[in-house]
Each structure stands twice: as C-alpha cells, then as structure tokens.
Design goal:
It contains 10 helices and 5 strands; from the N terminus they run ααααβαβαβαβααβα. It has 231 residues and is of the alpha/beta class. A 5-stranded parallel β-sheet has the order 2-1-3-4-5. Strand 1, helix 5 and strand 2 form a beta-alpha-beta unit. Helix 3 runs antiparallel to helix 4, helix 5 packs across helix 10 and helix 6 packs parallel to helix 7. It is globular. Bound molecules: cobalamin. Cobalamin (B12) binds next to helix 3, helix 4, helix 5, strand 3 and strand 4.
Length: 231
Amino acid sequence: MSAAESFAQAYLDAVLAGSRQRARAVVDDAKAQGVDIRALYLHIFQPTLREVGRLWQENRITVADEHLATAITQALMAQVFSETFARTEGHARTMIAACLDSERHEIGLRMVCDLLEMEGWETTFLGATVPSVSLAQMVQTRRPDALALSVSLATHVPRLTRAISALRDALGEATPVIVVGGRPFLHEPALAETVGADVVARDPTDAVERLKEHFASAAGLAPGTIDSPET
Ligand code: B12
C-alpha cells in the first residue's frame, strides 16, 4: 500500500461524517508524510469520490451525504492546489477545458487541469454545463493548443460527438488538439475515435504523456523530446 492509499480510508470516513475539519487534518497529515498533490488527487480524493458514488448508488448514503462529501473535496482541492502551486516561468502550452451542455461532473476535469498546470501548461477551466456554442466561440477567440472535454455519463457521448464535429467544421485547420476523458472512455478508450477526438487519456498523468506524444508526432519528433511549444 502506498503512503497515500493508507490515508484514503481516513479521508473517506471524514467526508462521510461530513467533517471538513477532519478531512483537512487527514490531508495535512498526508502532506506531512510526503504525499504530493498528484497522489492526494489520484489516490485519496478520486477513490473516495468513487466509493461515495457506490454507496449512493446502493442507497447506503443520501444525495445530501454525497453532495457534502463532494463539496468538502472540492474545497480541499482548491486549498491544496493554491498552497502547493507556484507558476514556473516558461512558454506554456494552453488548454481550454469544459464539460459540455448538461454534463455536471467536473471534478475529474479539474484534476486534469490542476495537474497539467503543474507540468507547465496554462489551463482555462470552464467547469460544468458549458453550452457548446459558447465554448466554440471561446475556442475561436483564444485559439488554445488543446481543448479538453470530459464526459461522465454515456448518454452524453452523442452530444459530445456532434459538438466536436461542429467545432471541426467551424475551425478547420485551426481546430486545437481535442483530448477527451471520463467514465465512458475509461471503459472503452476506442470510443475516442468514434467521437472525433485526437487524444484520449485515463487520468492526468496519462494525459500529460499522451499530449506530449501527440505534439511530438505532429512535429515529427520522437516522443519525449518535446517539452515546450518552442521545440
Ligand atoms: C460527485 C458526483 C456527482 C455530482 C457532480 C458534482 C461536480 N461538481 O462534479 C452531481 C451531484 C452533480 C452528480 C449528478 C449526477 N450523477 Co453523479 N457522480 C458523482 C460521483 C460520486 C463522483 C464523480 C467524481 O468526481 N469522481 C472522481 C473523479 C476524479 O473521477 P473521474 O470523473 O472518472 O475523472 C478521472 C478520469 O475519468 C479522468 N478524466 C475525467 N475527465 C477527463 C477529461 C480529460 C480530457 C481527460 C484526459 C481525463 C479525464 O481523469 C480524472 C482523474 O483521474 C460519481 C461516482 C464515480 N464513480 O465517479 C457519480 C456518478 C458518475 N454519477 C452518476 C449519476 C447516475 C448521476 C446523475 C444521473 C444522478 C441523478 N439521477 O441525478 C446526475 C447526472 C448529472 C449530469 N447531468 O451530469 C453515476 C453514473 C452511472 C453511469 N452508469 O453512467 C455515478 C457513477 C454514480 C453511480 N455509481 O451510480 N454526480
């Protein structure tokens, strides 16, 4: 068991008890033991939220309990990130990130943005339920290097496919690299091609690698040799 995993149960207990203070104390202890932000996100917050979802699905906790666990985790993510993160100087690649239309699950995408920021990216996180038309307008104006789209519900996949297609029609060659992720893609990565994405990743660490590979191959370089837009 990793150091982070040994704190996951205590964190789950704290959020199920609805105690932000206890949850905060677990995070502080974990940080004091050398658990970094990636491990906090992926080995403490992520499994906790998934377990909360399971308990909720089985009617063992209420929607209110889930909302409280979610709210505590979002607050702690914001706190931990602002305490930990210091922008490094450099020529960052840029990314806009959104959950389209009626998609409300935004935490996974926020993790992707926070951890890419730590890799030197400059991300614009728009969060949940972003209308595809206004997203297209923002992409057209800001021209990011990448557009990250997250879906948690399989029923939202057809809408995502239409939005990506409309974006490609509108932007043509200027379409940013489109990277997708979320539950349906965890189960079926090949779905990414069906929806018209360029890149799919299962978590933020994977996203960093896949994006590096994508930009390297687009530039005709061996993967791993590209770290900034200049190279
Ligand atoms: C919190 C939560 C909510 C919150 C979301 C709040 C918020 N602000 O985000 C609220 C209450 C709004 C909600 C609503 C609903 N939810 Co909900 N929710 C959850 C819960 C408990 C946690 C989600 C989460 O944050 N997980 C943790 C994150 C870190 O994991 P992740 O999303 O998979 O993200 C990781 C990867 O997938 C990947 N990733 C994600 N996005 C992207 C994007 C890119 C570009 C990349 C590269 C990678 C990537 O990286 C992330 C980090 O590793 C899940 C349980 C679960 N198993 O996840 C249910 C769950 C997803 N919800 C579910 C359901 C059914 C619903 C509702 C339909 C319930 C209802 N009847 O109203 C609604 C639908 C709302 C909507 N229209 O979108 C089901 C879905 C089941 C299914 N078969 O699809 C789940 C699985 C619960 C369950 N076990 O039944 N939910």
